[in-house]
Amino acid sequence: MLKQNETAPDFRLLDIHGAETSLEAILSRGKVLLAFFKVSCPVCHLTFPFLERLHESTRLQIVGVSQDDAAVTGEFCRELHLTFPMLLDGPDANYPVSRAFGITNVPSLFLVKKDSGIEWSVSGFSRKALEDLGHDLHVAVFRADDRVPDFRPG
User: Fold this and answer.
1) Helix, strand, coil % (nearest 5) of the chain?
2) Which helix (H) or strand (E) holds 24?
3) Whole-angstrom Cα distance, residue 29 to residue 22?
4) Helix (H) or strand (E) run with residue 66 in it
5) Taking each helix axis from N to C terminus, what angle separates 70-80 and 42-57, rounded to the nearest 10 degrees?
6) Peptide bond into 107 cis (omega under 30)
7) Could you write out the DSSP letters of every residue in 85-125?
8) For 9, which DSSP code?
9) What does the angle CA 146 – CA 147 – CA 153 come to, to the nearest 5 degrees?
10) Strand 61-66 and strand 32-37: pairing?
11) Counting CB atoms within 10 angstroms of each CB, which of 36, 75, 94, 129 has the fewest?
């Protein structure tokens, strides 16, 4: 899995609506949190509502990268009330972007700067990583009544 200070590879993927985009186009609007996931992953179900809180509360771009097809990814978004963009890196093309990022487990998160440098990456659910990101963005990711583990591997 790519780590801090490595370079994120550019890619081109379709979103769940069939429009193509690239990492270069996304980064032209600022840094991005890329969130790789699989719909069947319980740790992804734990993580993504907190990513939605970040998305709603900040100007940080968050983009999901699904390892599933558009139909099940759309259902995942509806079920979890996710509003950030979703790209498709599915099995039909043998997960080219996931392989380029060295993904072995999901969720895998990469904070990518405008110059394509990876600011940080984490695999699984890490309360500390999300709290630190929220702190940097002046957002409380977790609420007092949230009952979440400190870490859950993907």
Assistant:
1) 35, 25, 40
2) helix 23-27
3) 12
4) strand 61-66
5) 70
6) yes
7) -EEE--GGGT-HHHHHTT--SSSEEEEE-TTSBEEEEEESE
8) P
9) 115
10) parallel
11) 94
- Per-residue tokens: 43: 């740790």
Structure tokens at 14: 């379709």
Chain-centre distance of CA 33, in angstroms? 6
Residue that is written with structure tokens 């890619």 in the block: 11
Alpha-carbon torsion 123, 125, 129, 130, what sign? positive
| pLDDT tens, position by position, 115-151 | 999 999 999 999 999 999 999 999 999 999 999 999 9
What is the CB neighbour count within 10 angstroms for residue 145? 5
Find where tokens 């990022």 sit.
101
